[in-house]
Amino acid sequence: MASRNVTARGVACPASQAEQQLTTPYPEQSGQSAAAKPAGNEEISVGVILGFPPRIAEELQRWRASFGDPLADVVPAHITLVTTTPTRDWEATLRHVREVARCQSPFMVTIAGTGTFRPVSPVVFIKVEDGFEECVELHRKLQQGPLHRDLPFAYHPHVTIAHDVAPQSLDEAETVLKTYKATFPVVSMGLYEHDAEGIWQLREELDFGTETDNDARTRFTGAAADRTTDAG
């Protein structure tokens, strides 16, 4: 996903899985902002994700559809950083997520090979290799403050490729994509609200770092493009 690039030069930062229908595909990493305050003061649910470049996202969606997954057409490929999490303070949540993004530098992600959460959950996924630790650390920072809650399972970054389909289809997905590999840059993350109608609404696409630097972006994404590969 193309995006304006950001660099975190001299930034002083403190130390510190349910999928539903979306109104639009996850946005390109473009610094989009749609952070209007949700109506009312009642509890809302939010999530934070890393989106993918369009070519890779579309390819993975085609694969997911081929395994009979009904969510293939409404849930674009992504890595979840924060799954559905309730909060009562939207402004505090927005400040918190923006601060985490401000302190994060762009990084490379490689997804490769397959894994499964069976028998606990009927899910087959593509593994996150490069960028795994960055995702874990982002999750740790995000799931604090207004988004703090105890999770039933340890966080494990992954890309769902088949969910809640026939066992044979899960087997097929795990086998067919075992040699799949793709590498791409991640320069932003999306903050979503899970609204009352069960639809994910983008509230803000948050660029990593604090300084917009189009020239640096060109160098970063240009180098990344040379490294992008896929197979399988």
Major β-sheet profile: 4 strands, antiparallel
Count of alpha and pi helical runs: 5
- Unreliable residue stretches: 1-12, 15-32, 211-232
Shape: globular
Widest sheet: strand order?
A: 3-2-8-9
User: How much β-strand is present in the residues?
Assistant: 25-35%
Structural Rg: 17 Å
Mean pLDDT: 80
In total, how many beta strands? 10
Structural description of this entry:
Mean pLDDT is 80; it is low at 1-12, 15-32 and 211-232. This protein has helices spanning 54-66, 90-102, 132-142, 167-176, 214-227, and strands spanning 6-7, 44-51, 78-87, 107-116, 123-128, 158-163, 181-186, 188-194, 200-207, 211-212. The strands form three sheets. It has a four-stranded antiparallel beta sheet, with helices on one face. Strands 6-5-4-7 form a four-stranded antiparallel beta sheet. Strands 1-10 form a two-stranded antiparallel ribbon. By secondary structure, the chain is α+β, with helices and mostly antiparallel strands. The protein contains five helices and ten strands.
Question: What are the main properties of this structure?
Answer:
disordered N terminus, 5 helices, 232 residues, four-stranded antiparallel beta sheet, disordered C terminus, 28% strand, alpha+beta, 10 strands, single chain, globular, 26% helix
